[in-house]
Specification:
The protein has helices spanning 41-47, 117-120, 124-137, 154-165, 180-185, 199-205, 223-227, 253-256, 275-286, 303-311; strands at residues 2-6, 15-19, 29-38, 63-70, 81-85, 100-104, 108-110, 145-149, 169-174, 190-193, 211-216, 230-238, 262-265, 294-299, 318-322. By secondary structure, the protein is an alpha/beta fold.
């Protein structure tokens, strides 16, 4: 089988195509024939050597979709569609950048769908992160006004659509003028350009009150300003690190945290994927009630170019690799 292996961290050229034996699953693990997988910023950081707990060589990939090839425990039938995500996948054990993977049963989520694999491959981590942030982190309620900072990231575009389906008013940001149309296309009420200072404009859009909820996907570079966009007793959930800034330098609750505004972090894993909500989303997607923004589809052989695409932030949405067995 083919696998993409990182031996030494670096740029896209660090992703090397190798031929390996098809692995055998030990008890409690399942062999999955991988049909597609999405690319994630987590893998970008790991490829560059910025994930200190990851040792090399390693097959990256924190998510995938495919079918069960062999389950020694007999719980899952061969051919069963499954999604796998997180749980140290692609970090402590080899992940989705290959044709077959041996994965712990606990991170597998069976599903049934006739959607194309290249669409399904975009979904597991993106859906789980967006849904968990809105429901668990932000505790969103119908009628809330939500600001998504980093609106044209894959999670941002997913979160916007889930929020709209929940009955929220959505304000979403992008740094690129040409990406405003992407936000309009998925139904965002107020798409705005992010120049680093949003508080005044967001308050103008909310009659001076501020938003009820803010999903922070940019990270430490913008959290201070995002907090100023939130009304008293509102919530900011910090989920993403697109800026590459992992902390807020010299953060002071007295100076930076507005009175009664709550700041939380969402970093849920595979155990937080709501299988019923995921199944309902797949039904909505099949019925064209929601859209998935796929920024590019690549073959496994083209993984270096896919990572260059991610490095350069060329498009809005998710990058997907489709295996052709």
């Amino acid at each position: 089988m083919r696998a993409i292996v990182v031996h030494t961290p670096g740029g896209p050229e660090a992703l090397e195509l190798e031929h390996r034996p098809v692995p055998e699953p030990p008890p409690g693990w399942v062999r999955v024939r991988i049909e597609a997988f999405g690319l994630n910023r987590s893998e970008w950081f790991t490829r560059r050597g910025e994930s200190p707990t990851v040792s090399f060589p390693r097959v990256l990939g924190i998510e995938c979709v495919g079918v069960v090839d062999l389950d020694p425990g007999g719980e899952l039938r061969p051919g069963q569609q499954v999604a796998a995500l997180m749980g140290e996948m692609g970090r402590q054990f080899d992940g989705g950048y290959q044709e077959y993977a041996v994965l712990p049963r606990r991170i597998l989520h069976p599903f049934q769908s006739d959607l194309p694999w290249e669409v399904l491959g975009a979904l597991p981590e993106m859906f789980q992160t967006a849904h968990g942030s809105l429901v668990q982190g932000l505790e969103c309620q119908p009628g809330d006004t939500l600001l998504i900072r980093g609106g044209t990231t894959s999670v941002g575009m997913m979160a916007a659509q889930l929020a709209l389906r929940m009955g929220l008013r959505v304000i979403a940001t992008t740094r690129s003028e040409c990406k405003l149309a992407d936000l309009v296309a998925i139904g965002v009420h107020e798409p705005i350009i992010d120049d680093g200072a949003l508080a005044e404009r967001v308050r103008a859009l909310t009659d001076g009150r501020g938003v009820d909820r803010c999903l922070e996907l940019v990270g430490g570079a913008t959290v201070r300003d995002s907090l100023q966009c939130v009304r008293p007793r509102g919530i900011l959930c910090w989920t993403g690190f697109v800026s590459g800034v992992w902390a807020i330098d010299r953060f002071s609750p007295l100076r930076d945290l507005p009175h009664t505004v709550r700041l939380c972090f969402y970093g849920g894993g595979t155990e937080d994927l709501d299988d019923a909500a995921f199944a309902a989303f797949l039904d909505d997607l099949a019925a064209d009630r929601v859209k998935v923004a796929v920024a590019g589809i690549y073959a496994l052989d083209d993984i270096q170019e896919a990572h260059r695409h991610m490095d350069e932030n060329r498009g809005a949405g998710k990058l997907v690799v489709r295996n052709r067995h």
